[in-house]
Every structure is written in structure tokens, then in C-alpha cells.
């Protein structure tokens, strides 16, 4: 089973940065929620934050000294605190903090600590709606995201300042912030920047690679759909590995909970027909197509514009029609394009993968048995057998999906 967002925080060491905003009082609830989910919390309070809430509140909640001033006697040493933490959440994050973090400015404890910290960071901004929509703030958000920081946008609602009314700028609910932190830690990226894989030789430089990932959804009515448990991890790992080997990558992604990788183009789709259209649009000029997605093979013949009610005879009403097969359509006229498919089997053996290799005109196919505990849907590892058209067969794993992705790309590079 994949680790849930709640389990992702168990035993983690989290630094909570608190900026100067009326919403600073909600940071206390964030701290409580983190601790309730099993995390150890240390708080860093900015000078502006301390004008809204005092350090005694956080010391009382966490049982730990609060860090505020780099030079004060007895303050936790910032390099040691950076080495201690697994991840950081800054909530509320002000426009000032976003700008400084994006620009690499280190003029107080929190901003200095953020530069010294090699792990993953989530910012939850809260501010006046005009400040949030200001191009300077949005530029900072863009820079931070490109640096791999997760920025949880403010939500719509009543804003704190008198007469401000409603707008986008409100700090998300503390539970939603902690959920997002848990999702960030259980998602595809490594927990610490220091754990990033060693750079690979740029053997895909100048190549264009299209990767499909995740499930597709086929709606029955406004509240129900047909889908499958694909998390997108395998496809995202392939897209990120291809990017890191120098390729220009387009990732066509069904609905998944992973944060979007930076440095590549992500096209979001919902249905199999949308995925096919996005792939066909991305293919001109491409060298490689890798189909790691689990597109729904069927869709309901009719989509109801209103919710079906129990007793409407739904049991008899569901009639399915076949969806297009994306790889088969591409395979029919692929020219020099290298096409890699997966075969997700649950009962059929590797011979089924060889049938797909032939029938879809693939160059490589990765067989995975999704009933294995370390392979297939949702888990962070995979175990595949990679077949090529010349009769080659290579068993890979069980290994982290990123490592499996590297071995599949080795196979692709051998064909290019
Ligand atoms: O996303 P994860 O949780 O990390 O899980 C990874 C995975 C199990 C989804 C992945 O490893 C995998 O096996 N992907 C292929 C899933 C699948 O649809 O398998 P299939 O045997 O039904 O299809 C064979 C190939 O045809 C696949 O490459 C698939 O992307 C492609 N296909 C399938 C249906 C369709 N309508 N169009 C397609 O192109």
C-alpha cells in the first residue's frame, strides 16, 4: 500500500516557519495537527510573526525553544536545526518571505535557515488579495516552484483586515496545510535535496520524449467515473529521469496526486480520448513515446448530465464502448519513433507482454505483474521484465521506480 498523507508525517521532524500576518495564530493549529500526526515540531518565528503571536505559545505547544534571532544567546543554532529537520512548512508565508526566499536573501533566522536547509519546503501564503495577485509576488511563487518548493495557494474567503471583504488571500485551513505537507512527503520527490540521484550522463540531450502517466477517468454522471489505481509514479519517474538526461520532455498526465515536476511540459488530461489527442499533438518531432499511463479501455456509452439516483436502474443502464488504444494508434504509423509500452498484468504471464509488443508495434515493452506487493500500481517500487523486438529479455527490480525508469531509458538509448 502507498503511504497515506497521515502516515507520511509519523516520526518526521518538521520546522514550522511563522511569518507576520493576522493568520499567524493559525500556525499554532498547524503545530498541533503536525504533532497529532506523530511529527516532532520546532518553530522559527520571524520578527514580524512575533508581533502577532508570542514565542511562549509555540514553546508551550511544542515543548521546544522557539528560534527567532540568529544572534541571541540560547537560540537553536541554525545549521544544526537545518541538519535536524526532514521538511519545512512556512505558514503563514508573507509576500516579504516569498520574495526573499525566491531571491536567496538571508537577513534573519528563517530566511537564513531556509537557505541552509537541503530538504523539501512547503509555503502556505496568506495576504491581502491585491498583494497575492501582484506580478512581483506571482513571480516569486513561480521562481520558488521552479526551485522545487511547493506553494499551496491561498484560498477564497473572508480576509482579515477591516473592510477587505472576501477574496483570494486567506490561509488554507491548517488541516489542509498539514495534508499538503504529508502529500508532498509521500509524493514522488526525494525528502531532501541531498538525496537527489547523482547526475546521469546527458545521453538524451537534443532528444524529444513524450511520456504518458497516471490513470484516465471516464465519467458516468457528475459524481461517478470509471478509473483505476494508477498513481502516476512510474510515468513521472520516467519523465523526470528523461529530463535529467537532457531530453525535452512532454508529460501527458491523467489525474494524480503528485506535484508537477519542473523543467518539463505537463499536459493534464482526464479521459483516454483527451490523452490520445494530447499525445498526437506532442508527437511531431518527438524521438520517443513511453506509455506508462493506465488509460481506461472503456467508457460509458452515455454520460448523464445529472446524478443517477439509486432505484434509477443503474445496474441495467451501464453500457460500455471501447476507447481508442493510444499506443496501437501511434504504432500503426510510427516511422522512426521509438515506442515503449508497459503491460500491466494480473493473471496473464509475460507472453501477454510479447503479444502487446507485436500487436501495438512497440520497440520495448515492460511487463509488470500488478499483484506483486513491490510492483505495479501505487507503490514506490516496480519489478518489470523488459522485452525488445530482437528477443532480448531483462529483469529489472524490485527497485525504486526512478531506478527502474533509468534502466528502461538505458534500453531506449540503446535503440536511438
Ligand atoms: O502509476 P503507478 O501507480 O506508478 O503504476 C504504474 C503502472 C502499473 C500504471 C505502470 O507500470 C503500467 O503498467 N502502465 C501500463 C498500464 C496499462 O494500461 O497496461 P495495459 O497492459 O492495459 O496496456 C498496455 C499498454 O498500452 C500500456 O503501455 C498502456 O499505457 C497502453 N494503453 C492502454 C490502453 C489504452 N487505451 N491505450 C494505451 O495506449
Describe it for me?
By secondary structure, the protein is of the alpha/beta class. It has two domains: 2-195, Flavin prenyltransferase-like (Rossmann fold, 3-Layer(aba) Sandwich), CATH 3.40.50.1950; 208-299 and 320-415, CoaB-like (Rossmann fold), CATH 3.40.50.10300. It has 15 helices and 19 strands. The protein has an eight-stranded mixed β-sheet, sandwiched between helices. Strands 2-1-3-4-5 form a five-stranded parallel β-sheet, with helices on both faces. It has a two-stranded antiparallel sheet with strand order 6-7. A hairpin with a 2-residue loop joins strand 9 (218-221) and strand 10 (224-226). The longest helix is centred in the C-terminal third of the chain and has 15 residues, at 401-415. The protein starts with 12 loop residues before the first strand and ends with a helix. The relative contact order is 0.09. Residues 1-6 have low confidence and may be disordered. Bound molecules: ligand PMT. Ligand PMT binds at residues 212, 214, 230-234, 272, 291-295, 297, 323, 325-327, 341-344, 356, 368, 370, 376-378, 382. Ligand PMT is lined by residues 212, 214, 230-234, 272, 291-295, 297, 323, 325-327, 341-344, 356, 368, 370, 376-378, 382.
Q: Please work out how many helical segments DSSP would assign.
A: 15
Name the bound molecules.
Answer: ligand PMT
Spatial order of the strands in the main sheet? 12-11-8-13-16-17-18-19
Rounded to the nearest angstrom, the radius of gyration is 24 Å
Q: Into which percent range does the helicity of residues fall?
A: 25-40%
Report the portion of residues in β strands.
Answer: 15-25%
User: How would you sum up the global shape?
Assistant: globular
Would you identify the CATH H-level superfamily of the largest domain? Flavin prenyltransferase-like
Amino acid at each position: 500500500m502507498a503511504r497515506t498523507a497521515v502516515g507520511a508525517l509519523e516520526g518526521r521532524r518538521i520546522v514550522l516557519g511563522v511569518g507576520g500576518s493576522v493568520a499567524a495564530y493559525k500556525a499554532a493549529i498547524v503545530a498541533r495537527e503536525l504533532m497529532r500526526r506523530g511529527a516532532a515540531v520546532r518553530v522559527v518565528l520571524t520578527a514580524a510573526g512575533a508581533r502577532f503571536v508570542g514565542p511562549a505559545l509555540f514553546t508551550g505547544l511544542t515543548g521546544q525553544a522557539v528560534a527567532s534571532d540568529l544572534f541571541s544567546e540560547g537560540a537553536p543554532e541554525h545549521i544544526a536545526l537545518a541538519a535536524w529537520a526532514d521538511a519545512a512548512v512556512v505558514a503563514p508565508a508573507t509576500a516579504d518571505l516569498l520574495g526573499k526566499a525566491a531571491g536567496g536573501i538571508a537577513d534573519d533566522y528563517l530566511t537564513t535557515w531556509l537557505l541552509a536547509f537541503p530538504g523539501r519546503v512547503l509555503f502556505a501564503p496568506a495576504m491581502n488579495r491585491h498583494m497575492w495577485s501582484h506580478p512581483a509576488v506571482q513571480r516569486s511563487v513561480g521562481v520558488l516552484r521552479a526551485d522545487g518548493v511547493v506553494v499551496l495557494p491561498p484560498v477564497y474567503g473572508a480576509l482579515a483586515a477591516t473592510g477587505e471583504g472576501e477574496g483570494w488571500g486567506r490561509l488554507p485551513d491548517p488541516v489542509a496545510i498539514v495534508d499538503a505537507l504529508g502529500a508532498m512527503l509521500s509524493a514522488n520527490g526525494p525528502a531532501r535535496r541531498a538525496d537527489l540521484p547523482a547526475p546521469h550522463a546527458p545521453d538524451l540531450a537534443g532528444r524529444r520524449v513524450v511520456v504518458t502517466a497516471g490513470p484516465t477517468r471516464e465519467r458516468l454522471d457528475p459524481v461517478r467515473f470509471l478509473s483505476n489505481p494508477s498513481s502516476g509514479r512510474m510515468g513521472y519517474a520516467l519523465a523526470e529521469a528523461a529530463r535529467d538526461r537532457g531530453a525535452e520532455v512532454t508529460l501527458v498526465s491523467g489525474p494524480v496526486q503528485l506535484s508537477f515536476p519542473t523543467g518539463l511540459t505537463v499536459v493534464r488530461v482526464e479521459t483516454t480520448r483527451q490523452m490520445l489527442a494530447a499525445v498526437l499533438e506532442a508527437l511531431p518531432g518527438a524521438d520517443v513515446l513511453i506509455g506508462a499511463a493506465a488509460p481506461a479501455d472503456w467508457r460509458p456509452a452515455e454520460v448523464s448530465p445529472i446524478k443517477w439516483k439509486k432505484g434509477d436502474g443503474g445496474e441495467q443502464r451501464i453500457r460500455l464502448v471501447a476507447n481508442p488504444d493510444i499506443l496501437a494508434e501511434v504504432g500503426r504509423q510510427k516511422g522512426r519513433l521509438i515506442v515503449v509500452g508497459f503491460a500491466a498484468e494480473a493473471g496473464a504471464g509475460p507472453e501477454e507482454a510479447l503479444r502487446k509488443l507485436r500487436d501495438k508495434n512497440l520497440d520495448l515493452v515492460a511487463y509488470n505483474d500488478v499483484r506483486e506487493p513491490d510492483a505495479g500500481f501505487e507503490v514506490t517500487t516496480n519489478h518489470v521484465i523488459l522485452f525488445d523486438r530482437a528477443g532480448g529479455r531483462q529483469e529489472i527490480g524490485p527497485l525504486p521506480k526512478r531506478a527502474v525508469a533509468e534502466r528502461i531509458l538505458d534500453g531506449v538509448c540503446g535503440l536511438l
